[in-house]
Design a protein that fits this description.
Layout (H helix, E strand, L loop, with lengths): L3 H6 L20 E3 L8 E9 L8 E9 L11 E4 L13 H4 L2 H4 L4 E4 L23 H15 L8 H15 L4 E6 L1 H12 L4 E7 L12 H17 L1 H6 L3 H14 L2 E6 L6 E6 L1 H11 L3 H4 L2 H9 L4 H7 L13 H11 L6 H7 L6 H7 L4 H4 L16 E6 L7 H8 L5 E6 L12 H10 L19 E3 L2 E2 L2
Parallel strand pairs: 4-5, 4-6, 6-7, 7-10, 10-11
Antiparallel strand pairs: 1-2, 2-3, 3-5, 8-9, 12-13
Keywords: Hydrolase, Signal
GO biological process, one term: proteolysis
Organism: Pseudoduganella umbonata
Amino acid sequence: MRSTIVSTLLLATQLVLPAAHAAPAPQAGRTCHLPGIEEALRCISVPVPLDYAKSGRTLAIHATVAPAFREAARSDPLFVLAGGPGQAGSDILPLVHAAFRRVRATRDIVLIDQRGTGLSGKLDCKSPPEIDTMTEEQLDADARRCIESLGASYGSYTTDAAARDIERVRLALGYGQVNLWGGSYGTRLAQHYTRLFPANVRALVLDGVAAPDQVIPAGGRDAQAALETTFRQCEKEAACARAFPALRTEFAALAAQLAKAPARIEMADPRTAALRPVTISLRRFTATVHRILYSQADAHTLPFLIHSAHGGRWEPFIAQSNRDSDFSTDGAMAGPLYLAVVCAEDVPRLTPQLVAEDTPGSFLGAAVSTQLATLCPAVNVKRVAYAAPARIDAPALLLSGALDPVTPPRRAEAAAKLMKAAQHLVVKNGGHIVSPLGCAPRLMREFLDAPHQRVEARCLDEIPAPTFQLNSAGPQP
């Protein structure tokens, strides 16, 4: 997450719809070339109200269409909703090939940039050049200044408004029923859209499922479980156990050291090769560890990174941390949008009792959960009341990684209780987002072709666990 806001974190009442009008002619859109995919795609821009409760200001929602390969395509496309909140559909275009290539054989793939992200009026705060040496107080102050300078009506950037935008995109493209794929926060948005417009949803595929009652900042329990699993896996693998025999002790020592004072080192700037100072605070350390756990390939580098840092060699750890900066394809998160959504929908439910239940024994700690709330006054959004969710009747395929540190299988199981026909598949060697792995692309196609039939998913057990990195040469062969 390259934005200043995310770097500093290192970490509803339904509105009445306007009267129905005759459906407009479908938009043809324009040919477009976007980063992340070589071929020409089709792009459209759909005007929507900034506030669905009143007329006046509008904004433009961007959608990217990857047309089906076959001319006789099915009429029900797959709408793709990205995560975050703060990630745009145009940020995850590589998934068109990596995860949706089978589905695209017969269906259009439509990737939507949520309002406030990507090409839909992105709310963005760039990281300052001196970010590596700034204190946490300076980072927080810089974030507040940026949020206020944008002058956005942050209260209009809710999940409910984003769901209504999806409906405008569906109408603009002239589709009838659609299928939805949501990843991470996108699963919350997909569920909300389905509950608002149930007749328009044919089927859902939800990957990294956020349960309706999940509070995004309260992730200590799930994060610690993923870290413990990584430690246990290293201890059970002979080569990893020999290379890092004191892994838990070294991790605890680093956390204790950083709790007393940040670590300060000099390292070569990856852009200029000039030596520059770098500060590693406890907040940056724990947030980097958390993000590493999202991917199993990355998680299996963690013992090496911890051991190296404990020995005073911080460079590998910092290099991994910088993958969330402007050197990364994942660096396009819209930080202010994240705050607008989470401060309105999640922080009001982050009660002292929930923090007390979620954080004991977790490396994230209570401070990580509650620090976000200190930035909420800057976006100045009203609380969105939590309403008991209605049952979803459309068939749903829920996908989970057993080692996911943010939306583990227990979250999907909670969401499935509110669905009439849900199938839940777990990838035992998967982390956060498993759609591109192994046979998952084929299973998604099979489900969408016949969503009321059971999916035979034993092939997911064949997805191997990555090997551990033991030294600077990289993972084992």
